[in-house]
């Protein structure tokens, strides 16, 4: 831990049972240092949160990992839990409750005051991956007939309860969003200026049912710290802030990386997840990939006669299938990342295919030439491949072109196909693509060998 003084002082005060001094001391620390202290002493998480003022306790709680939050809630007395849940911003509270079992949620909901309960139940009613699930109803909304002075007075009175005052929203008498302003636009004009004279009717809003991943792209393109959320009628329901988007983006990135690696997404840190649960997360894909690799043995058995006549062909099987798998994994990773960043969409499939055909031919050509040269050169020194080394080299070289081309096409098209079918593109993981290309690569290799060597080695 970087702040060793905090750790030592905490342990000293706990040992001396100096809880009054502990409360004062902890409240003077940075929230990030408090979170680091909890990470260092997870068994003391409940004590740490319980000895913070409620505002700072909520600030620390909201940035903890979910499994730590669960432990804290279990350890805190009911009165403190109620105080903490009511203090949390609505979006953070909803995010936490959304991860819990329904029976636990029912009990915790009872601890909320009527207003916060109504807000939380409303947010929990939205789809888990929708923007509505992470929006907050705490924002500043003003009317177009107000003056700038009225707006500033309103911000002074109610701004402390808002998630952010960087952006101010203008609504009509029905609550429909009609414009938004950055706070500086009010600060830099005369106080008697009317709001409607500043309006340009240009604003960007999220729909309450939009997917969170789509919202990430909009935040990135618009470079905003907050965006309004509206319903089908354009009524302003809440806002989503950049801190929530960064959290979601990190979770999505982590989940995609884990899926690309051929495992289910982990919902806990690696060292904290129970071993049997970790095995369960990994075994599914391993079994699928293992069964898929069995087809490789089936393919080799089909060409058993050719291998018996030309044993030299078997020497290059690992080379062929690994090259195809590697090229497929490369393409799959690149396309999944490009889709995640919004660089390509389903409508770009032909452009992607065209680029990957050219890339596959060039990459395969380079590997094919290297493979051919290596076989011919090695045979000239050690006579390892017999009198038909040129033919063997051509077989390997041409096969590499075909296998690498097929690998790039498979790796690039599978994510797009899965996206079109409504599945997560990340599930076309590198291991899955590699397994597919292994099997088909053998078919390509032995088909080329049979075509080129018929009448000589075969």
From TrEMBL:
Q: List keywords of the entry alphabetically.
A: CBS domain, Cell membrane, Magnesium, Membrane, Metal-binding, Transmembrane, Transmembrane helix, Transport
Query: Which NCBIfam families does the entry mention?
Result: mgtE
Cellular compartments per GO CC: plasma membrane
Q: Spell out the subunit comment.
A: Homodimer.
Q: Does the record bear Cell cycle in its keywords?
A: no
Which species is the source of this protein?
Chitinophaga sancti
Q: Which InterPro entries match?
A: CBS_dom, CBS_dom_sf, Mg_transptr_MgtE_intracell_dom, MgtE_N_sf, MgtE_transporter, SLC41_membr_dom, SLC41_membr_dom_sf
Subcellular localization(s) per the UniProt record: Cell membrane; Membrane
Question: Which segments cross the bilayer?
Answer: 283-303, 357-378, 390-418, 430-453
Task: Note the superkingdom of the native organism.
Answer: Bacteria
Q: What is the lineage of its organism?
A: Bacteria, Pseudomonadati, Bacteroidota, Chitinophagia, Chitinophagales
User: What family, per the record?
Assistant: Belongs to the SLC41A transporter family.
Q: What is this protein called?
A: Magnesium transporter MgtE
